[in-house]
Fold this protein.
Amino acid sequence: MNDILSEATLRAALGDCKHLKIVFYPVCGSTNLEAKKLFADGFCKPTLIVAKEQTAGRGRQGRAFYSPAESGVYFTLLHPAQGSLGSLVPLTAAAAVAVMRAIRDCTGRQTQIKWVNDLTIGGRKVCGILSEGLTGEQNALAIGVGINLRPAKFPPELAGIAGSVGDTDTPRSTLIAAAVRNLLSFLNAPTHREWLDDYRKTSCVIGHEILILQNRETRAAKALDVGDDGELIVQTGRGIETLRTGEITVRMADQPTNSE
């Protein structure tokens, strides 16, 4: 397999996305942090930041994201925001569908979406998404994606939690380009209908018992549906509630508990 990951292979895979600036690093701390640096320096144009390896990959709540060279895909799309920044839940949900479709179309593997920012296979996390809003003279979005594409040996603390797509054939540039095209399409779409149906269909949460981790409180609930803006609708002892923040753990007999 010819899997050279470079600015040249990314540009070739992206084809007609000539407006997109590409910044490539053999190694960096975090592609989201590099996007923030660009923004802080006054740069706010559509930019794809890609790294072969991250030494300080980040997930939600400040967690680390294991990002070894060769086996994974790590990138951030920096994009000007249209108007003021609101909830990032719809953006993260749209990004999950964009990556899910890219993995499916490029590798033939079907992933499921765990609200709000993870993709899983067999209950194990194979992709994490970190969306951040950047404010300044012009607001921007930084959409970070990390995919465990190749089989990898994970650290002991990730045993039973992390997994991989298991693909050994798809060039990383091809997968990144497919995901970025989907993301750009969703960012320019007039409504959420472009991604909402797929988000619901591939959810591994709807219909299952969950634990909600919110405001330092853990409570049981049942996930009922995903709302029109990507929010999670749940049944709790308090009645029907809508979650726009917080995290969940899916409680399923056929998959490991995962609160990452």
About this structure: The chain has five helices and twelve strands. The first strand starts at residue 21 and ends at 28.
